[in-house]
Write a structure and sequence with these properties.
The chain has about 270 residues and is of the alpha/beta class. The protein has one domain (about 5-250): 4-Layer Sandwich (Metallo-beta-lactamase, Chain A). The chain contains nine helices and 14 strands. It has helices at about 35-45, 60-65, 65-75, 80-90, 150-155, 170-175, 180-185, 195-205, 225-240, and strands at about 5-10, 15-20, 25-30, 55, 80, 100, 105-110, 115-120, 130-135, 135-140, 160-165, 210-215, 245, 255-260. The strands form two sheets. Strands 6-5-4-3-2-1-14 form a seven-stranded mixed sheet. A seven-stranded mixed sheet has the order 7-8-9-10-11-12-13. Strand 8 and strand 9 form a beta hairpin. The chain is globular, with a radius of gyration of 17 Å. The structure holds zinc ion (2 copies). One zinc ion binds near residues 60, 124 and 144. InterPro entries: Metallo-B-lactamas, RibonucZ/Hydroxyglut_hydro, WalJ/YycJ-like. This is Metallo-beta-lactamase domain-containing protein.
């Protein structure tokens, strides 16, 4: 059975990704409507009820847009950190029966997949990133983080595939349309990861075996796919490294990314 990652939406207007690992289907965030989710899963021959779980990173609207309708119609469990669960159950009391709160830093299992949930620095109740392990594969997921603290770095090192935020180009943010206070929030330690910070971590990840990198949660106003890709490619090239880089589009990916087991060769870097 194929292991794959399929981004259904990424960026300030919505976030949602499907991870298929060892026959287990995990949806990360619910930032699309149920109608759209149904259609996109249908394109893969799946239905919402084929999902083993939804894992939520935090309660911001771009990550939970479809939640109210979802809990009305489906009984797929929603895993999230306890602080996020509290914030969500205040907003959506009808979600209570579906929520599976965990303590950040916890390990748990969904189907055949071992999940490690780690805290991320962001201006939400208790935002979370994830590492997934199954079938000899390790996949990391971290978006909505103002910087890369050591526990986040350590959780992602050694993952063969990593979905990592590359939110903004600092110069575009500084000269862009956002008011000063919002610029400060985005660039701050509980905001979003910049292209240079993403690129810096990418070098370390590839040095430690990451061979597929998906740049995610790009800002509409303060970034372009070209800026994000160039920054990380240049940093890898300068370090004598290379890896497969995809930029998650605002809407769905053209096709799922098949996850590979092969590790980037760090002993004979490409020119
Ligand atoms: Zn957020
Ligand atoms: Zn977000």
């Amino acid at each position: 059975m194929d292991n794959f990652y399929y981004s259904l939406a990424s960026g300030s207007s919505g976030n949602c990704g499907l991870l298929a690992l060892d026959g287990t289907y995990i949806l990360i965030d619910l930032g699309v409507s149920v109608r759209r989710l149904t259609a996109l899963l249908g394109g893969l021959g799946l239905t919402i009820d084929d999902l083993d779980a939804v894992l939520l990173t935090h309660e911001h609207i771009d990550h939970i847009k479809g939640m109210a309708t979802f809990v009305k119609r489906h009984s797929v469990p929603l895993y999230t950190a306890i602080g996020t669960a509290e914030a969500l159950s205040r907003k959506f009391p009808q979600a209570n029966d579906h929520l599976r709160p965990f303590y950040s830093g916890a390990n748990f299992t969904v189907g055949n997949v071992k999940v490690y949930a780690f805290p991320t620095p962001h201006d939400a109740a208790e935002s979370t990133g994830y590492r997934f392990e199954a079938d000899g594969m390790r996949v990391g997921y971290a978006t909505d983080l103002g910087f890369v603290p050591t526990p986040v770095r350590e959780a992602l090192l050694g993952c063969s595939t990593v979905v990592l935020e590359s939110n903004h180009d600092p110069e575009m943010l500084r000269t862009g349309p956002y008011p000063y206070a919002l610029q400060q929030r985005v660039a701050g330690p509980r905001g979003h990861l910049s292209n240079p910070d993403c690129a810096k971590l990418a070098v370390e990840l590839v040095q430690n075996g990451t061979s597929q990198l998906i740049l995610a949660h790009l800002s509409d106003k303060n970034n372009t796919p070209g800026h994000a890709r160039l920054e990380t490619e240049a940093a890898l090239r300068a370090a004598g490294l290379s890896c497969t880089i995809l930029v998650a589009p605002k809407d769905e990916m053209e096709q799922p990314l098949l996850l590979t087991r092969e590790e980037a060769c760090v002993c004979c870097p490409s020119a």
